[in-house]
Amino acid sequence: MSKIVIIGGGAAGFFTAINAKELNPNLDITILEKGKDVLQKVKISGGGRCNVTHACFEPKELTKFYPRGQKELLGPFHQFMTGDTFEWFENKGVPLKIESDNRVFPEANTSQAIIDCFHKEINRLNIKILTSKGVTSFSKQGKKWIVKTKEGEFLADKLVIAAGSSKKIWDISKELNHSIIPTVPSLFTFNIKDNRIKDLGGVSVPNATVKINGTKLENYGPLLITHWGMSGPAVLKLSAFGARILADKNYKYSVSVNWISKSEEQISEELLDLKNKNSRKQIGLKSPFPEIPRRLWERLIIASKIRLQQNWADTNKTQLSSLAEQLTKATFNADGKSTFKEEFVTAGGIDLKEINFKRFESKLHKNLFYVGEILNIDAVTGGFNFQNAWTGGWICANALAQE
User: Fold this and answer.
1) Distance CA 260, CA 220 (A)
2) pLDDT at 341 over 80
3) Is 104 exposed, middle or buried (0-12, 13-18, 19+ CB in 10 A)?
4) What is the CA radius of gyration of the chain?
């Protein structure tokens, strides 16, 4: 009977354990969790509803949501994909639903449905969970792995590291000659203080184009103004793909926003047409663009040196040109970042060159496996980080099941 020790009582660890034991009932599996509780990240995910995965069913398309891991995950996604995730949870009595933005949640609309499912399977399969077991070291002794905690030692034929973003475990892995890519925050919002967006928290536009000036970083989508700056899908995806670039800039950079995602020339023509058609109307009376809320429209008018009570007919060429610029390439200075909700995600971890992605096994040490966020893999918001956990856990489980 092979003994398996899994370090980490999170999504990746549980998913690996359950599938490995189902594939090979003879395995003796123990999960070691540092904290007093397991599955804490699952509990808070998606505002307490657990964003299980994303409704993208083409492997190559799915990899595009991973700033780190895009190339490495293509093969694994051909083995276990979002459709397999749907089927797995359905078979366990947890049906999933697709929301309008393609995020996927349990039909029960609570993360507890996922947690209960995992606990039920763990109990059914007689997998041991030991909490408050902080690992102090793990090392190879002959063909066995010795895992040490303050409370005692554990012997394993195969060792799985699913400890998330754990500096301690990275440090131990470094002693085994694994390379660790330094971590930086991945999903974060932009801290911006600017009169154009001051006190506009909650105002959003559906189709903004956001650029980080001086880089090739650009993204399109909904943008949300917050009390501390800017957030929303357009910003969060930029933060993920620009994680290292923005860290190198110490989070001080210039952002260009096209609120309406049209060219400056096109907007200039539309503004001139509006002037001709609404000559006697006040420019600040109503936003002529459905995508731009009135409060934001007023701020952009003021920034263009135009009075809100001014009639369209009285706007000169310079003012219209300035307004077109505010609409299509408004520049903001960002200084700092804020974590996106409670879901702190980092870029960094075990160097992907040192992992065999056909098994999620270390290339340096036989029978040592890494799954989940401990690897230098991260994704944008929307269920993608969990899909990485499910895919890695499934492939790793298949490797563990082989005697």
Assistant:
1) 10
2) no
3) buried
4) 25
Buried (b) or exposed (e) across 357-371, using 16+ Cβ within 10 A?
bebbbbeebebbbbb
Closest CA to 54 of 343, 372, 383, 391: 383
What pTM does this model have? 0.89
Mean pLDDT of the chain: 96
Q: How far is CA 281 from the centre of its chain?
A: 46
Q: Which of 5, 42, 70 minimizes the C-alpha distance to 352? A: 70
Q: Are 110 and 97 in contact (CB under 8 A)?
A: no
**Which tens digit of pLDDT belongs to each residue from 216-248?**
999 999 999 999 999 999 999 999 999 999 999
125-184 pLDDT tens trace: 999 999 999 999 999 999 999 999 988 999 999 999 999 999 999 999 999 999 999 999
Q: What is the spatial distance between Cα 227 and Cα 250, in angstroms, rounded to a whole number?
A: 21
Nearest to 244 by CA among 167, 184, 334: 184
In angstroms, the CA 329 to CA 211 distance is 9
Residue among 37, 40, 34, 38 at smallest CA distance from 150 = 34
d(CA 383, CA 393): 15
Enumerate the domain spans of the chain.
3-184+343-401, 188-339
Structure tokens at 162: 């699913």
Domain 3-184+343-401 fold: FAD/NAD(P)-binding domain (3.50.50)
